Amino acid sequence: MSKFYITTPIYYVNGEPHIGHAYTTILADAMARHYRQRGADVFFLTGTDEHGLKVQRAAEELGISPKELADKNSASFKRLFEKLELTYDRFIRTTDADHTKVVTEVVNRMKANGDVYLDSYSGWYAASDEAFFDESEIEDGHVKSSGAKVEWVEEKSYFFRLSKYQEPLLEWYNTNPHSVQPDARRNEVASFVASGLRDLSISRTTFDWGIEWPDDPEHVLYVWVDALTNYITGVGAFHDQALFERFWPCDVHLIGKDILRFHAVYWPAFLMSAGVELPHQVFAHGWWMNDGKKMSKSMGNFIDAFELADTYPLDLLRYYLMREMAFGSDGNFVHERVIGRNNSELADNLGNLVNRSQAMTQKFCEGNVPAFHELDGDLGREISLVAEKAQVTLEDMSHLMDEREPHRALERLMEFSSDLNQFIAVTQPWALNKRGETQALESVMYTLLEGVRWLAVMLCAFLPKTSELILAGLGVESKAFESLKWGGLKSGESLTNIDVLFAKMELPVKEEVKEEPKIEAKKEGPKAAEEGIITFDHFMAVELKVGHILSAEKVEGADKLLKLSVDAGEESPRTVVAGIAKSYAPEDLVDQRVAMVANLKPRKVFGTLSQGMLLAVETEDGGLELARYSANVKAGTRIS
Ligand code: ME8
């Protein structure tokens, strides 16, 4: 492995970062870290896509210039990536000066190759996808696949001879099975291409937020030509030859499945036309759902990336995102599952392993890495088995990363963690200590600590903070895979104490409530939307009612939650699960009349379907106080 160049899509600056952005960039970060550990010369590129109609319109709505919007939101992505401690080598912006030059050169090369002609375009365009669509792809004024609204466009336009590249593209897919992955995605684009390619309109004249067409200032370049070119600008195309030769062709363009056509059809065709080598691979991952539902702007259920980063420790977030979603398929984000994986996999398996190995080293080996002695018999066999498993895990995980199966690589590492826990159970160091079998005890403890070192090194790409803590505790500096020679841990090294790596967590009750679709402020002019003002109709859409609490009880295993039976003036009482157990004893609530949101979509909280949300304020001491009414107010009365 000599070099590894990985890219993420560059993100639109019309909005704030969400889980999809965080996911792709975290994955790219894990891959970049992994290949660095394997000694590769790595370049990791990410950034923002700032031109085009979509961004121009978003800026107009806010009453600011597109550049102002781009500056603001690009900074927001950068802030997120800093918060997530991502190790990119360049954060590219399509408004960067070097990028304009590279894009202009690409267009000039296409022109020189006879691939561009002027004509007029008429057809459907969806600004939010920044793409043209055929009649067959549209239903009721919206794109079938994405739901984006289309508008009719008729204007003069430069065209790119995409049709010319139909055969070369098919040949590329056929002769390079790795070119587009997973296989199903390659088949999907291959059949799209085989069904016939039409030339592509690559300039617009009806707005101006874009890179100017060389020699024809009336046109701006179609945003996807501009955006895709970032992948070569980022590594110096046409302006830093040494850098370009060092990293191009790209090893993997990581993208989401919705932008496959742009990356697996248009991009290689543009490159062929410009005389640039094709990338090694385009890999399309699936989409995150929010609790089983597709995320969309209109539903207001996009999971905000900053909110995620504030809710969970970084390594847990990385672990969950990479472990939960089979790379290439869709995944479902569920808060209960994050907590579940934290508690049963990170805390109970990995955290426990590290704590036990530390505690036993303190207790039986005076806090130092003991010496290793060759042993015969069962113990000797158990010890060699651990060394073998470590080696096999290393090979498997590297292979799985090469095959773009990071979720399985991570699974293998957690299996090795279980193996080490099992090794403790089988060898019983405490019994060896009791029997005074010092050499056996030392060898077992050495093996355990060496196993933990291997595990921590292999986990660095996935759980960088945790691994660093474990390695620092062992007094180990190198994270390079080269340092993984069995027996590399130095005997006599004294261990430093490691705090609890993963505390057990309870379900964040507030998150439960926050996930419900937001009612978006209707845009009555940019100012109103900006200040979060809603109309009376929006307020009335929230059904607030007085609920009479009939009974209340604790929820097993969740010490913040109470399960209530609430009369809301309906045929039968509702069940409501509320996060108020720290502030109210169940008996204090019976017969109380409280304010309740009655038309929130019911959702499962700790296994119980909750059919309402109680209104409360947070008091200065961090408790909660419910909004209450006197006994004169009838259950079910509407609050307005
Ligand atoms: O498409 N789960 O930018 P973008 C996972 N600027 N990934 C998701 C997702 C979800 N629910 N929703 C969106 C663009 N994504 C262009 C790219 S590259 C030259 C230009 C992913 O900000 C989506 O699949 O709209 C895409 O890969 C990425 O977020 C960026 O989306």
UniProtKB/TrEMBL annotation:
Location in or out of the cell: Cytoplasm
UniProt xrefs under PROSITE patterns: TRBD
Quaternary structure note: Homodimer.
Catalytic activity: tRNA(Met) + L-methionine + ATP = L-methionyl-tRNA(Met) + AMP + diphosphate
Name of the molecule in the record: Methionine--tRNA ligase
Organism whose genome encodes this protein: Microvenator marinus
Protein family membership: Belongs to the class-I aminoacyl-tRNA synthetase family. MetG type 2B subfamily.
Broad EC category: ligase
Annotated EC: 6.1.1.10
Pfam families tied to this protein: Anticodon_3, tRNA-synt_1g, tRNA_bind
Cellular compartments per GO CC: cytoplasm
Major place of residence: cytoplasm
NCBIfam families: metG, metG_C_term, PRK12267.1
Keywords carried by this UniProt record: Aminoacyl-tRNA synthetase, ATP-binding, Cytoplasm, Ligase, Nucleotide-binding, Protein biosynthesis, RNA-binding, tRNA-binding
Role noted for this protein: Is required not only for elongation of protein synthesis but also for the initiation of all mRNA translation through initiator tRNA(fMet) aminoacylation.
Residues reported to bind ATP: 293
Domain TRNA-binding: 538-640
GO MF, one example: methionine-tRNA ligase activity
InterPro entries (UniProt xref): Anticodon_Met, Met-tRNA-synth_bsu_C, Met-tRNA_synth, Met-tRNA_synth_2, Methionyl/Leucyl_tRNA_Synth, MetRS_core, NA-bd_OB-fold, Rossmann-like_a/b/a_fold
GO biological process, one term: methionyl-tRNA aminoacylation
Motif interval(s): 'HIGH' region: 11-21
Motif, 'KMSKS' region: chain positions: 294-298
